[in-house]
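@channel sequence for tomorrow's demo:
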Amino acid sequence: MGWFYQLDRETVSCNSPRRFHLMLFSSPIFLFLFLPVVLALCALPGLKLRNGLLLVFSVIFYAWGEVVFVFLMLGSTLLNHFLGQWVDRETEPVRRKWAVGVAVGLNIGTLAFFKYANFAVGNLNAVLGFLHLGAVHMNPVRLPIGISFFTFHALSYVIDIYRRKWVAAKNPCDVALYIFFFPQLIAGPILRWSAIAPQLGRRVVTREGFAEGVRRFTGGLAKKMIIANVVAVPTDKIFALAPQELTPTLAWLAVLCYTLQIYFDFSGYSDMAVGLGKMFGFVFLENFNFPYISQSIKDFWRRWHISLSSWFRDYLYIPLGGNRCPAWRNHLNLVIVFFLCGLWHGASWTFVIWGLYHGCFLVLERTRFGKTVESLWRPLRHGYTWLVVMVGWVLFRAGTFGQAMNFLGNLMGISSGASHGQIVAWYWSHELGCSIILGVIFAMPAWGWICHRARALQRGMPEVLRPAAAAAGMALQLFLMVALLLISASWLAGGTYNPFIYFRF
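C-alpha cells (generated this afternoon):
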C-alpha cells in the first residue's frame, strides 16, 4: 500500500513528522487481501463465530494505522460497557441521570482532550502573548484516527440505554464490535446502538443482499476513483497557491472541484460502508440523499451527512428544546448545534465559522427570508442553495481564515493576483472535464431516473418480451459493475490516489 495520511488540519502538510499508515477501502491490500479473507472466513456457520471474527479483523484494520490507540479504543469500549450496565440497572431517576451524566462526561472529556487540547493551548498562548505573559508549554497531543466517530458511537450506546431504546450488552465483545466494526470505524456513517444491537444477535446474509452490497461498494469505489480523486488534484494545487497567484477563474474552478470532491469522496466512502455492511448482513443508515438538489439550506442538511445531522438533532437539538420553545430560543438552539457541528469537524476556527455560517442561514430560513426563498422560481432556489453551500466549502477547505478571505475575494472578482496569476489551462485536462461532467450528472438522481425509465419501458413491452428484457437489464448492470470495478482498479494500480477527506475527523 505504502501511502500515508495526515489526520488533523494542523498537520496536513507533507513535511509534517506525523504520519499514518492506513488500510483504505480503496487500497490494493484491502480490496485484494483483507476483504476477500474476511468474507471467506465470515461465511462459516455460527453467528457468534462470525461476530468474533469480525471483531478480530476490525481491530486489525484499526491497528494497521494506529497500533497505540487500539488500546485507547479497547479501554474506552470496556469502560462504556460497564457504564452502560450501570445506567441500565439504575431505576431511580436521579441516580440514572447521574450515571448517564458521568458516562457522557467521560466520553466528551476524552474527545476534548485528544482533539482540542492543542487548539486550546494554541489559543491560550495567543492571548497570553497579547498580554505579554509567559506561554504554556505542552507536548503536542496526537489525534487518534476516527475519534469523533467512535466517541459518538459510545455516546449513542449509553444514551440509548438511558432512554430505554435498547438494553445494555451483556457481552463486552458486542459493544466492541459495535464501536470497532471496520466498515464504519474511520469515517462513519454514525450508527445507533438501538439500530445495530438487534442485528448483532440476529441477521441473515442473503444472496440478494450480498449482491446489493457488492453493487453499492463498487459504485462507491467508482465515485472515489473516477470523480473525487480526479477533481482533488486541481483543488489541492489551487488551494496551495500563494495569494498573489490566485485569480477569480482559478478560485471558481477550485471551489467547483472541491464541491464535487467532498460529496463524491464522502458519499463514495458511505456507499462502500453501507455495501460492506450488507455483505455481512447488516443494514446501515443511508448517509446521503442527493444533497446538491436541495432547494434550501434546511433541505441540504436533511440530505447531507444524514447520520451526523440526525445525531445532533436527536441527542442535542431536541434535548435543548428543539422547536418546542420560543422563536429566540429555537434560533439559539440552532446556532449552538451548528457551532458544535463545526467544532466536531475539526479544531480550527475555520470549521467553527463554517458551522456558525450554516447555523445562521438555518435561522434566517425560519424568518421571513425563508418564505421569500420558498416563493422563488425553483432554479433560483437551487442556485441560492448551491451558492451558499459552495461559499461554505471555502471556509471548510481553507487552512486559515486569511486564505478563506482571499478565496472569497477572488470569487467576487476582487483579485490580488491580476499581474502574477496563473492560468486555468495549467490545471485543466480532458480527464478533469469528463470527471466534472460526470460529477454534475451523478450529483443528481440520474441513475435512479434511468432505472425508473427502463422499468417503465419494460412494463410497456409485450408479455412475451419481458423476461428477455429483464435478463438483458441484469446483464447490462453486471457489465457496468465489472467495468467500473476494472476502471477503478486500473486507476488505483496507476497511482491515482487521494485519502478520504473525513478520515481527518
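heads up for whoever presents: The chain has 20 helices and no strands.
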